[in-house]
């Protein structure tokens, strides 16, 4: 209580005094004087110690007559001698300790600061322990100075006590540890924090040394997330004055950097290359899409295609883009389910009946009654087939019987329909007989009609519909879906922000790079980076996964080389992806201007430019990608683009489709050389036919002296125009019934499309590889081109032989980098985004082009296919599929599959078997000392040649050849 009060009073006094004069109070004056004196004493002490001379008279020495050498005079000599005597060499730090002690005691403190006795006690104790142990350590380890022990008397006493028991090492260790304890007691510094600091600084030192050695000191850059004004105010000012309209930076740093008064900092402008305007399909085309009748009219016999023209249908583009729920809703609202079709095409008089039928969940009506009613309906109008009728015709007699009792309970009155059951009961037996015949006949007719109706179900593929021939010479663009409007919004600010983020993230990985160009595309955006000198591009490539993670992107593809530019590309997927429609690319000038009938569309490149290629120049293409990556759509797009460019006289197709789904749509177009091949055995025949055709074309070309199919066709045309049409020079009499060789015809390009090439390889095996390799090697000049698609990009499918001969590859998304290497001989396809995103490796180039594949829906394919079907029928060549593999049909250089190498021992074995009359494998094995496998193979060859029989049930073979005749 008292103390507190006193303090309070003192504080009040002190503040008033301080306020008045600003001078020290009495105690403070004493303290300061004490500090000054202590410093004086320290200095004198230091002088005395450093100028100590052993010749001076002192406490331990006696000297006469000579001058005192010590700088501190006789006092200095005495003090120094005494201190050296007591503390040895530890006397030297005493002036420092004295000054430090004086500072601690006399420094100016706040008056209310209490003195912590515990703290002071430990400090003093620490000082004593430190001094004693230091003396002890000095005594053991240092040399004596003059005639004093290096640890002084203190050190001597301590070591003489410890040495007999702990020896030198033990004493040193004990003193060291005590020294450490004394240090902590005195200073309060923990040894753990000392260890930590030491560790930190040694690691930092090591890093510094390593960075110096690697010479990358300059690469460590700070992420530049702060506005330029904070980094370089001069530069910012210049920028601001140059362009006042610059946008303000939205800082993505979490720290608020702007104050309200500060001017808005100017952003660094990135060079964003906006894509060109969309090619606009003329409104005429759009209008045509809606009123187009050429597509719907031919399908009119099928009930569902018979649209009511007055009824307003939603435009096709809308239908396509609508979800199933929306379509369902529309259908419900307009009530246009199958029932509607029936009612719209049926006679109005029958509507009531159909309505009644529709409300029945289970058929409780007499089947015969219904049948008759149905027949009546049918007879009235033969041209209309009612699909719903088939529901009732599938009933057999048993069912009819079962139903009989129910008919009595039927609550539906069907008497209105001129059916009188009672009459038949009253008729005589002849009439009954006639009725029976009539009923049987009618049921037969109705069954046939129902079957037909079943086959003409609009939901089934229509095979032979009579399509009216379109007026246009080639399919038109309105067959394809084209979106009415497209969101093509590019957010500059967002792109710039991403660009800054990319730079910052690269800086995190110690890569200094600057985004120089930004190319926003329909699916991805490419940021072109200018790397600082000396930064390897492989460092960025190896970081692609880390970058994708840190930029929260699905995948990031690094384009190591951009031809013609000194930059590196970083391709990031867009937030919202646009679909590239086939119509976009087909309507592009690139496609329109291309003259070749084998022009194929791939899609759009990253800048939205159409990517169009010529299959004739490729000359073959390998398409690979995992399931669902967009392969089939890609192949369809290639085929459709050729159907847009060429007539059947220009291009013919052979399609091989093991999946029976993808290419079977094309069945019936006039471009097909053979039916779509779905059986893999036939596929090898088709390929063999192609090889034969190739050889034939080569012979023809050599006779005409031209180098390729184009030259051949040109020469043919020239000759015809000159009035000298060329007759087939390879024709021989007897080849056909004609008296003279037929005229040569224009040779079309032949495109062989194989969807799921892996299946073909698995079923037919090596043979296919051989045939494909032969075609791939030579078929270019002969105008035969291959499109091979596979979802298994493994080396057993895409073999070295095939790869070597097919230089053009298209890779859709694959799962691993290894797969990507198998297809493209380089990585990258594993970072694609799927849904038609592809890498295209053009022929003779090692740089892949990223292409967003064009999308053709099934409706698009059907529309183009139907358009071509309406123009003509295919002229199938039956030999292509059914060609037998007989020796006469073999191609030059081809061997029968069963043709194995005949074993060198074959003749000897024949001799042995025929002589001994025993054709067992073990016998052959023993006699010729060969392995089982070889012996078994030879015996099988004997069987194939008819020398021995097949093994009987006991495994023995009978020798069929007669025994040799002996003389
Ligand atoms: N270019 C594209 N644009 C947009 N979506 C596409 C594109 N290509 C394909 N798709 C989408 O990807 C789906 C799968 O495509 P597709 O059937 O061609 O794959 P696939 O690789 O042939 O698969 P599978 O081998 O199983 O047949 C399609 O249904 C379609 O929705």
UniProtKB/TrEMBL annotation:
Superkingdom field: Bacteria
Residue span of region Disordered: 291-315, 377-433
Chain ranges passing through the membrane: 33-52, 83-105, 117-139, 145-166, 173-194
Compositional bias segments (type: Acidic residues): 394-403, 412-433
Pfam families noted in UniProt: FtsK_4TM (PF13491), FtsK_alpha (PF17854), FtsK_gamma (PF09397), FtsK_SpoIIIE (PF01580)
Keyword Aminoacyl-tRNA synthetase in annotation: no
Principal subcellular localisation of the protein: membrane
Membrane topology classification: Multi-pass membrane protein
InterPro entries, per database record: FtsK/SpoIIIE/SftA, FtsK_4TM, FtsK_alpha, FtsK_dom, Ftsk_gamma, P-loop_NTPase, WH-like_DNA-bd_sf, WH_DNA-bd_sf
Keywords: ATP-binding, Cell cycle, Cell division, Cell membrane, Chromosome partition, DNA-binding, Membrane, Nucleotide-binding, Transmembrane, Transmembrane helix
Domain FtsK: start-end pairs: 608-821
Record: residues binding ATP: 625-632
Record PANTHER family: DNA TRANSLOCASE FTSK, SPORULATION PROTEIN RELATED
Family, as annotated: Belongs to the FtsK/SpoIIIE/SftA family.
The protein, known as: DNA translocase FtsK
Species this chain originates from: Vibrio plantisponsor
């Amino acid at each position: 209580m008292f103390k507190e009060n006193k303090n309070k009073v003192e504080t009040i006094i002190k503040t008033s005094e301080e306020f008045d004069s600003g001078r020290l109070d009495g105690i403070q004056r004493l303290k300061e004087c004490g500090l000054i004196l202590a410093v004086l004493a320290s200095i004198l002490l230091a002088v005395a110690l450093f100028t100590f001379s052993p010749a001076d008279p002192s406490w331990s020495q006696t000297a006469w007559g000579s001058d005192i050498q010590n700088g501190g005079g006789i006092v200095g000599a005495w003090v120094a001698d005494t201190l050296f005597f007591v503390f040895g060499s530890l006397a030297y730090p005493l002036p420092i300790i004295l000054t430090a002690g004086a500072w601690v005691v006399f420094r100016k403190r706040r008056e209310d600061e209490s003195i912590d006795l515990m703290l002071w006690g430990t400090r003093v104790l620490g000082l004593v322990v430190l001094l004693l142990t230091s003396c002890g350590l000095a005594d053991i380890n240092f040399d004596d100075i003059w005639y004093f022990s290096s640890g002084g008397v203190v050190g001597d006493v301590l070591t003489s006590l410890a040495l007999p028991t702990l020896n030198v090492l033990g004493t040193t260790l004990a003193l060291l540890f005590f020294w450490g304890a004394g240090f902590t007691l005195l200073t309060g510094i923990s040894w753990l924090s000392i260890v930590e600091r030491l560790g930190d600084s040694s690691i930092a030192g090591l890093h510094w040394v390593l960075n110096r050695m690697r010479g990358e000191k300059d690469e460590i850059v700070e992420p530049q997330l702060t506005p330029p004004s904070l980094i370089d105010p001069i530069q910012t000012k210049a920028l601001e004055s140059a362009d006042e309209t610059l946008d303000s930076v939205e800082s993505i740093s979490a720290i608020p950097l702007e104050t309200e008064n500060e001017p808005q900092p100017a952003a660094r402008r990135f060079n964003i290359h906006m894509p060109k305007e969309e090619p606009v399909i003329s409104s005429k085309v759009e209008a045509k899409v809606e009123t187009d009748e050429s597509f719907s009219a031919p399908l009119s016999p099928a009930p569902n295609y018979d649209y009511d023209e007055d009824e307003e249908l939603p435009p096709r583009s809308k239908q396509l883009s609508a979800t199933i729920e929306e379509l369902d809703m529309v259908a419900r609202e307009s009530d246009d389910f199958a029932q509607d079709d029936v009612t719209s095409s049926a006679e109005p008089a029958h509507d009531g009946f159909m309505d009644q039928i529709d409300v029945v969940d289970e058929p409780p009506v007499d089947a015969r009654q219904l049948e008759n009613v149905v027949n009546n309906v049918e007879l009235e109008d033969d041209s209309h087939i009612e699909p719903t009728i088939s529901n009732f015709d599938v009933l057999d007699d048993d069912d009819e019987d079962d139903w009989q009792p129910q008919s009595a309970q039927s609550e539906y009155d069907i008497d209105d329909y001129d059916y009188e059951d009672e009459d038949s009961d009253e008729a005589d037996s002849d009439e009954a007989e006639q009725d029976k015949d009539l009923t049987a006949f009618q049921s037969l007719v109705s069954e046939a009609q129902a079957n037909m109706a079943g086959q003409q179900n609009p939901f089934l593929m229509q095979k032979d519909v009579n399509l009216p021939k379109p007026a246009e010479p080639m399919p038109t663009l309105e067959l394809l879906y084209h979106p009415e409007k497209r969101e093509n919004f590019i957010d500059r600010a967002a792109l710039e922000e991403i660009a800054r983020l990319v730079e910052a993230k690269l800086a995190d990985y110690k890569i200094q790079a600057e985004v120089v160009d930004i190319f926003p595309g329909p699916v991805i955006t490419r940021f072109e980076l200018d790397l600082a000198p000396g930064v390897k591009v492989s460092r960025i490539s190896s970081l692609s996964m880390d970058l994708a993670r840190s930029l929260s992107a699905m995948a990031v593809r690094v384009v190591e080389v951009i031809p013609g530019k000194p930059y590196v590309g970083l391709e990031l997927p867009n937030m919202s992806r646009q679909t590239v429609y086939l119509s976009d690319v087909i309507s592009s000038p690139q496609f329109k201007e291309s003259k070749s009938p084998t022009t194929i569309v791939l899609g759009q490149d990253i800048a939205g430019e159409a990517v169009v290629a010529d299959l004739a120049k490729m000359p073959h293409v390998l398409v690979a990608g995992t399931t669902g990556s967009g392969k089939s759509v890609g192949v369809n797009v290639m085929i459709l683009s050729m159907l847009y460019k060429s007539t059947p006289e220009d291009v013919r197709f052979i399609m091989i489709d093991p999946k029976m789904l993808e290419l079977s749509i094309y069945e019936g177009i006039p471009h097909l050389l053979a039916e779509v091949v779905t059986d893999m055995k036939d596929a090898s025949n088709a390929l063999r036919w192609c090889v034969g055709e190739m050889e034939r074309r080569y012979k023809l070309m050599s006779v005409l002296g031209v180098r390729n199919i184009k030259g051949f066709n040109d020469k043919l045309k020239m000759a015809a125009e000159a009035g000298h049409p060329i007759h087939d020079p390879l024709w021989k009499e007897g080849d056909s019934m004609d008296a003279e060789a037929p005229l040569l015809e224009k040779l079309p390009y032949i495109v062989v499309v194989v969807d799921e090439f892996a299946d073909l390889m698995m079923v037919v095996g090596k043979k296919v590889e051989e045939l494909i390799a032969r075609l791939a090697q030579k078929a270019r000049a002969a105008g035969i081109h291959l499109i091979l698609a596979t979802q298994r990009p493994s080396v057993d499918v895409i073999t070295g032989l095939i790869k070597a001969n097919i230089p053009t590859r298209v890779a859709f998304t694959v799962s691993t980098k290894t797969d990507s290497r198998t297809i493209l001989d380089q990585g990258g396809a594993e970072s694609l985004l799927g849904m038609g995103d592809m890498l295209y490796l053009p022929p003779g180039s090692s740089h892949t082009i990223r292409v967003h594949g064009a999308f053709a829906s099934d409706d698009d394919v059907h529309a183009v296919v139907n358009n071509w079907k309406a123009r003509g029928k295919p002229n199938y060549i039956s030999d292509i599929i059914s060609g037998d593999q007989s020796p006469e049909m073999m191609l030059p250089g081809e061997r029968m599959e069963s043709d194995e190498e005949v074993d060198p021992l074959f003749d000897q074995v024949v001799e042995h078997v025929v002589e001994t009359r025993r054709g067992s494998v073990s016998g052959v094995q023993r006699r010729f000392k060969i392995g089982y496998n070889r012996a078994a193979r030879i015996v099988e060859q004997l069987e194939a040649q008819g020398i021995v029989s097949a093994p009987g049930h006991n495994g023995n073979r009978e020798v069929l050849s007669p025994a040799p005749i002996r003389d």
